[in-house]
Amino acid sequence: MVTSQESERRSRRAERRQGRRRADEPNDNFTRGFTALGELSLAGVQVSARATDLASGRVLFSVDDDVIMPTASIGKVLLLVEVASQLAGPGMDGFRILDREPLDAVADSGIWQHLQAPSLPIADLAALVGATSDNLATNVLLREIGLEAVRARTESLGLTRTALLDLVRDHRGPDDAPQLSIGSTRELTWLFAALARGEIVTPEVSRRVVGWLSLNSDLSLVASAFGLDPLAHREPDHGLLLMNKTGTDRGVRSEVGVLRGPRAGVAYSVSMYFADTGLPARLSVLDGMRATGLDLLEYVF
């Protein structure tokens, strides 16, 4: 006959066994992120998210991942893909110098607007876009590359819900595109997974774009959970390696990336569109993105 004390001990042992993962088995439990995103959705935030295992492509979680969302600066990745593609061809040299002009001027993100140098090589401008989402460098590259070329490249990749719509503007009028870029988290997750595998255009093009994106210094959203140095994370740090791109605008917070760890790798994308009426609303969105990041970190680590 099993006593109540023995039954309780067996129950506790079973719970411990059930809750323990093998040393070689990633944790598939994304409850923390799902809960945080669900609470934000109930509070009126438009939420879209997706994560896939980098090796198998298995979907780890998804939330309205086909919805087209404003993604702010994330669309600059499409510009970088086209720049890398043209640099791989015979007609463009990465050392070619481009001048900034008054019509290119724009504020907010980036450091070139604060530097004295009036001209920089194309490859350096792309590095500035990858590192600081540099708006001025973006506009100069777009003037050289052409928005139509970026759109054509986007279509050739099979992306139908993701696009760079315009150059960067301080103010958007009625005749301008309402957003700098749009995207679905499903397509963005696929794009970054394909970049990581060297499948975008050519392996050379993919490697160049990954190199630029690995410079990104914005780890304030999902990647805030990863514990990496924002200014230096191009090499593995405690077994973690990240490339990512963020997009930030009034009422927009978006991030797409690839995180590799000791156990696994994951491609992810999270986008939020919300009424940025006060600091509490913004901080709750950031908390939700960080909660998702903690689940991703646990999966790869």
Automatic annotation (TrEMBL):
InterPro entries: Beta-lactam/transpept-like (IPR012338), Beta-lactam_cat (IPR045155), Beta-lactam_class-A (IPR000871). Keywords: Hydrolase. Residues 51-273 form the Beta-lactamase class A catalytic domain. GO terms for biological process: beta-lactam antibiotic catabolic process; response to antibiotic. GO terms for molecular function: beta-lactamase activity. It comes from the Bacteria. Residues 1-30 are annotated as: Disordered. The keyword Hydrolase applies. SUPFAM superfamilies: beta-lactamase/transpeptidase-like (SSF56601). Residues 10-20 have a biased composition (Basic residues). Pfam families: Beta-lactamase2. This is Serine hydrolase.
